[in-house]
Design brief:
alpha+beta; two-stranded antiparallel ribbon
C-alpha cells in the first residue's frame, strides 16, 4: 500500500510540474508582453514630458512662462522628497489635463544654489474635474491620485500625477516621493 501511495504522489508531482511548465510557457509570454506594453506606456509619457519641458531646464524660462514657486521644497514624511514645485495657476485652474502642459514643474535645489528640473506634476481640482467626468483622470494609462482636503498643502481636493522625467526614481516614474531627490541644499 505504501509503495502504491508513493507511486501516486510521484506521478502527481510529475504532472503538477508539467502543468506549471506548460502554464509558464502559455501565460508567461502574455505576462511578459503585458509588462512590455506597460513599460512602453511609461516610457511614452516620460518622453512626452521630457519633450514638453526641456524648455524649462533653466528655471528662469519657467518663471517667464508664468510658473512660480509654491510652498518651498517638499520633503517626504519618512523618506525622499519632491522638490520645489513651480505652479502655473492658470493651468491648475483650467480643469483640464494636457500632457504637453503640466500644471507644475518640479526642481531640486543643488548645493551651488541652482535649481535642477527633476519632474512635473499634473494637477486638477477634483470638483472641477468631477463636474465634467465620472472617473478620476488618466493620462497615457497612468491613473491620478486623489488628495483630499484638508491636506498638508492647504489646497482644495485635487487629483495629481507625478512624472519623474528628469531624475530617475527607484520606486517608479509615477510615484509621489523620489528617494533620489533631496531638499538638503535649500
Amino acid at each position: 500500500m505504501t509503495t502504491r501511495i508513493n507511486t501516486l504522489v510521484k506521478a502527481s508531482l510529475v504532472n503538477t510540474s508539467r502543468l506549471l511548465i506548460l502554464s509558464s510557457l502559455l501565460f508567461g509570454g502574455a505576462a511578459a508582453q503585458a509588462s512590455h506594453s506597460h513599460a512602453q506606456a511609461q516610457s511614452t509619457l516620460v518622453q512626452v514630458v521630457r519633450e514638453a519641458t526641456k524648455q524649462f531646464i533653466d528655471v528662469s524660462a519657467a518663471v517667464a512662462a508664468s510658473y512660480g514657486p509654491f510652498l518651498g521644497c517638499v520633503s517626504g514624511p519618512d523618506h525622499g522628497a519632491m522638490g520645489i514645485h513651480y505652479l502655473n495657476g492658470a493651468l491648475v485652474g483650467d480643469g483640464q489635463i494636457d500632457a504637453s502642459h503640466p500644471e507644475a514643474l518640479i526642481y531640486e535645489p543643488e548645493p551651488n544654489g541652482e535649481l535642477r528640473l527633476v519632474g512635473v506634476e499634473y494637477i486638477v481640482i477634483a470638483s472641477q474635474w468631477l463636474a465634467n467626468h465620472s472617473a478620476p483622470p488618466v493620462l497615457e494609462g497612468q491613473s491620478f491620485q486623489f488628495v483630499d482636503s484638508p491636506n498638508r498643502y492647504g489646497v482644495p481636493a485635487i487629483f495629481e500625477l507625478h512624472v519623474w522625467a528628469w531624475r530617475e526614481n527607484p520606486n517608479g516614474a509615477f510615484v509621489d516621493w523620489n528617494n533620489h531627490v533631496s531638499c538638503e541644499a535649500q
